Each structure stands twice: as structure tokens, then as C-alpha cells.
Amino acid sequence: MAANSKHIENKRYNYIPNEDISKAAESFEERDMTRSRKLDPTVYGELFVLGCNGTAPVHLQRHMKSKFTLRQRYHPNVSYNFAGFRSIVVEYTRDKSTDMFQIGRYESPPVDIKVTDLNQARKGVSRFACRIVIERNDNHQAKVYAAAFDGTGNVFFR
Question: Residues in domain Pellino FHA (predicted)?
């Protein structure tokens, strides 16, 4: 990723910050054509991040995106099952019918969309704040799982 570029995109994960949509569309087409030899511009929708009060300091502005386009991934990336309210460890495997997008405060491989707080010391955004799971079929049903901590400090999703 180029730090001084106005348009920043994460090539490992398939989301594009929506600052310059024409460049984003061109970049998506080029990347998709070179990787899969087939153009599939399926757009699930857009994610708007709300809640920042004030202006971000200059050194944080490139991290403070507020609009993201969720596009169908090159390869489906998640499948999991669980029942009841038991503690579980989830191993994610590829599933041809779903895509998952992870939102959190870190810029790391498990996190697709990084969301930061104006006051980074406060850590107001969780490492794994929420997950969006979208069905790849025609209706593109999306489910948002918000993360929280239980009484023992373990993360759980609802």
C-alpha cells in the first residue's frame, strides 16, 4: 500500500475505501481481471462508519475512513455452525455460499476494515468489533454480528 496515495486499497482483502470511486472501479476491474480472468463486479453494499465527534489529527486522517464498499470476494471465505449459548472456538473454512468481512481497530490479516477511535489510548473500538457475513446467492442477505465481552472477559458475537 502506498502511504502517500489518496486512494488506498487492501489487495489481500476485497474492500475499497470509497474516496475516489472512479479510480476504485478501475482498480477493481484491473485486479479482478488479472486474478480470475473474469470480471464480477457484484457489490453487496456500502458500510458507513458513524460516531466520530470532531476532526481527526493529521497523522490519523488516512486511517479514519468512513465509507467502505463491500464487494463479492474472489473466493468465498467462511463457513461455521454453532448451537445454543455454549462457548465455542470457531474454525473458519471456505464456503461457496458466504463471504465474511471482519471489522476492528487493527490493521492485520484477520481484519478487513480498520476503524480507529480519535483517542487511540482509549481503545474505543474493539480488536474484533463486528463481523458481516453475506450470502453470495442472488438475495445477498447480510448478517451483522456485533462483538462484546462477557463477565469473564471472553469475546462473543450476537
Answer: 77-157
Q: With the C-alpha atoms ordered 142, 79, 116, 17, is the resulting torsion angle positive or negative?
A: negative
Region of 13 please: left (phi>0), alpha (psi -120 to 50) or beta: beta
* Predicted model pTM: 0.53
Phi and psi at residue 34, to the nearest 5°: -75, -30
Q: Are strands 142-149 and 130-135 parallel, antiparallel or unpaired?
A: antiparallel
CB-count exposure of residue 16 (10 Å: 0-12, 13-18, 19+): buried
- One DSSP character per residue, 54-97 reads S---GGGGGG---EEEEE--SS--------TT----PPP---TT
The low-confidence residues of the chain, meaning pLDDT below 50, are 1-38
Q: Pick from 113, 101, 108: which is nearest to 143 by CA?
A: 101
Q: How many other CB atoms sit within 10 Å of the CB of residue 104?
A: 21
Position 156 scores a pLDDT of: 64
**Which position has the grid cell 487492501?**
10
For position 42, what pLDDT does the model report?
84
The three grid cell numbers given for residue 121, joined into one nine-digit string: 489510548
